[in-house]
């Protein structure tokens, strides 16, 4: 429930970023790169012990990182983490929604069960809605925020095929949520975009993927550090806008 937020920023003037699903893979690398840019990073995961272990590894690299437990599919967990962050860190400048699941990857759309669709949407769509509801209003009040929703080229309607129906459709829904959220906070200083990191060598992507985690994290970090005149409501890959 976020009660294990172990550390505070070493410098309270630092910008603060929170990354979900960050104890490994792309989320961990995004946390590393943001911390290297001078952010205090709150690294979150469903398992608080794994999150703290990952944060400790980054602290050993002299990076300013703390850990918190947050299960994005559990609204009580999300709001509990938000309370802890606001109480102990004070504000949030950057939100990276990275947590996601890949279920029934090899099934055809009509062979994918309703439960498999439901579990996918709980993490990949409803979880992100919940996290944004918990954190974005304070960004709006603060007059500054960067929200990056980690999507996938699999969610592009312009090129969608038969791959991983539950995952692909959930990412298309996430893209639509991104457009809606960006429009709803337009003009407040909060920029909202989604990013496709590409096929990356992670536990989800597999060892045969062509891109490193550093390459996958790059555009996410770019979206998290956009200037005031940066884009909002867009879908990006390799720092370039791509089709929906």
Question: Would you write up a description of this structure?
Answer:
- This protein is 41% helix and 15% strand.
- The chain has 244 residues and is α/β, with parallel strands linked by helices.
- It has one domain (16-241): NAD(P)-binding Rossmann-like Domain (Rossmann fold, 3-Layer(aba) Sandwich).
- Strands 3-2-1-4-5-6-7-8 form an eight-stranded mixed sheet, with helices on both faces.
- β7 (235-237) and β8 form a beta hairpin.
- It starts with 15 loop residues before the first strand and ends with a strand.
- The mean pLDDT is 92.
Notable traits:
Rossmann fold, 8-stranded mixed sheet, 6 helices, globular, single chain, 8 strands, 244 residues, alpha/beta
Provide the residue-averaged pLDDT.
92
* Computed CA radius of gyration, to the nearest angstrom: 17 Å
Largest sheet: 8 strands, mixed
> What is the molecular shape?
globular
Instruction: Supply the helix-strand structural class.
Output: alpha/beta
Name of the level-1 CATH class:
Alpha Beta
> What is the CATH architecture descriptor?
3-Layer(aba) Sandwich
CATH superfamily: NAD(P)-binding Rossmann-like Domain
Which regions are unreliable across 5 or more consecutive residues at pLDDT < 50? none
- The portion of residues assigned to helices is 40-55%
Strand arrangement, major sheet: 3-2-1-4-5-6-7-8
Distance between the termini: 35 Å
How large a portion of the residues is in β-strands, by DSSP E?
A: 5-15%
What CATH calls the topology is: Rossmann fold
What letter string, H or E per element, gives the SSE order?
A: EHEHEHEHEHEHEE
* Oligomer type: single chain
Total number of domains: 1
The number of distinct β-strands equals: 8
- Count the helices. How many? 6
């Amino acid at each position: 429930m976020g009660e294990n937020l172990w550390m505070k920023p070493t410098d309270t003037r630092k910008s603060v970023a929170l990354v979900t699903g960050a104890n490994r893979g792309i989320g961990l690398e995004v946390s590393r790169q943001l911390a290297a840019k001078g952010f205090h990073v709150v690294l979150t995961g469903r398992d608080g012990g794994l999150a703290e272990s990952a944060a400790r590894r980054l602290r050993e690299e002299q990076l300013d990182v703390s850990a918190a437990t947050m299960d994005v599919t559990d609204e009580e967990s999300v709001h509990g983490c938000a309370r802890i962050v606001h109480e102990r860190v004070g504000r949030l400048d950057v939100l990276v929604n990275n947590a996601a699941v890949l279920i029934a990857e090899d099934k055809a759309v009509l062979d994918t069960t309703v439960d498999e669709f439901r579990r996918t949407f709980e993490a990949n769509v409803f979880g992100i809605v919940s996290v944004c509801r918990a954190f974005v209003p304070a960004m709006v009040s603060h007059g500054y925020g960067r929200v990056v929703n980690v999507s996938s080229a699999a969610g592009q309607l312009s090129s969608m095929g038969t791959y991983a129906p539950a995952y692909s459709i959930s990412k298309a829904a996430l893209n639509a949520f991104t457009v809606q959220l960006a429009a709803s906070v337009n003009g407040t200083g909060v920029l909202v975009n989604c990013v496709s990191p590409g096929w990356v060598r992670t536990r989800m992507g597999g060892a045969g993927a062509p891109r490193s985690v550093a390459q996958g994290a790059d555009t996410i970090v770019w979206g998290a550090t956009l200037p005031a005149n940066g884009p909002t409501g867009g879908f990006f890959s390799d720092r370039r806008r791509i089709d929906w």
